[in-house]
Write a structure and sequence with these properties.
331 residues, Phosphorylase Kinase, domain 1, Aminoglycoside 3'-phosphotransferase, Chain: A, domain 2, 2 domains, three-stranded antiparallel β-sheet, 11 helices, 13% strand
């Protein structure tokens, strides 16, 4: 099934804006990106702005349906996940777009929706590409933000919306979940990618060997974003940083976050690097992450209406190269 997104209009979003602010937008435009929810910028007569989030099946390119929140890696989409994450980040002193109005009753749209503050300025990704001098200070701030985020711990691993409400997640440990998910991605890729099929047995053995080297952990899981690339950090004109796309916020091994940070920040990762990471977990999580970033984009291209398919194929191809390199260097 292919999902094609219908773009919402000013008329569609006016009831939400009026409920939240008592005002009618003059223009509404879709914000580029966002494969799990619709993101729209609303501009008002005085040129002030706000952003609408819409969690509708029509806006979700993954065609995944509601995820089971007790699975930490289930589809991270929905108003409940967003509000729980926003509350937790606020308690941790980590900035995210301020919630202006939430509608879980489908009163204003036939879907869960929220209106949040529009953070002026670009992303940390924009800054890294265009202003290296300013980026250095922003990276220092990002490192401090990460310290604040990861200093927060939970009693159990899992999505914040589950754990903070007293619930528990499936699985016995973070490493067990990661290994099982990687094996699932590997099995799925056999049908989609001949180069993976050719080394399926070797990769299965490699995942098993890496998982066997991970020792049980007794320390509490840390609060992590889960997909913290520089595109998910907004930089305001005064240099403040705020996290966006926060629905995947969870308590988990901090190594999972650092594998993603290293992948997405590249040569800038050294500014965010920290000590006391478990090398065995890093090795397992690195291979698992690359497998996920092959399987996920290929799955999205198969079911979705992503606006830049060449970009998504490039992600899959790059990460497949990394998987094969890790396999060769382990031999």
């Amino acid at each position: 099934m292919t999902v094609t997104r219908r773009e919402l209009t000013r008329d569609d979003l006016t009831p939400l804006a009026r409920a939240a602010l008592g005002r009618t937008p003059t223009t509404v435009t879709r914000v580029r990106g966002g494969s799990k929810k619709g993101v729209y910028r609303l501009v008002f007569e005085d040129r002030s702005t706000a952003v609408a989030y819409v969690w509708s099946p029509d806006e979700d390119l993954w065609d995944a349906g509601p995820g089971d929140p007790r699975d930490p890696f289930s589809h991270a989409s929905g108003l409940t996940l967003f509000t729980a994450a926003a509350d937790r980040l606020a308690a941790a002193g980590v900035r995210a777009p301020r919630l202006l109005h939430a509608d879980a009753t489908h009163t204003h749209l036939p879907a869960d929706a929220a209106l949040v503050e529009d953070l002026p300025g670009g992303t940390l990704e924009d800054l890294l590409a265009g202003d290296p001098a300013a980026a250095s200070d922003a990276l220092e701030r990002a490192a401090a933000l990460l310290d604040a985020l990861h200093a927060c711990t939970g009693p159990r691993f899992g999505k914040v919306a589950v754990v903070d409400n007293g619930g528990s997640s499936y699985g016995s440990s973070c490493e067990q979940l990661v290994a099982e998910r990687a094996l699932g991605d590997l099995d799925e890729l056999v049908a989609r990618e001949p180069r993976v099929a050719a080394v399926h047995g070797q990769l299965t053995d490699r995942l098993g060997a890496l998982a066997a080297l991970v020792r049980p952990r007794t320390s509490a899981p840390a609060l992590i974003h889960g997909e913290l690339g520089p595109d998910h950090v907004r930089v305001t004109p005064d240099g403040d940083l705020a996290l966006i796309d926060i629905e995947g916020l969870m308590y988990f091994d901090v190594e999972w976050e650092h594998v993603f940070l290293r992948l997405r920040f590249g040569r800038h990762y050294d500014a965010l690097r920290t000590g006391n990471l478990d090398e065995a977990r890093l090795r397992l999580y690195r291979l698992a992450m690359h497998l996920s970033l092959v399987a996920g984009p290929l799955r999205l291209l198969e079911v979705g209406d992503f606006d830049d398919p060449a970009f998504m194929r490039g992600i899959a191809e790059h990460n497949l190269g990394q998987v094969l390199t890790l396999l060769r260097t382990a031999s």
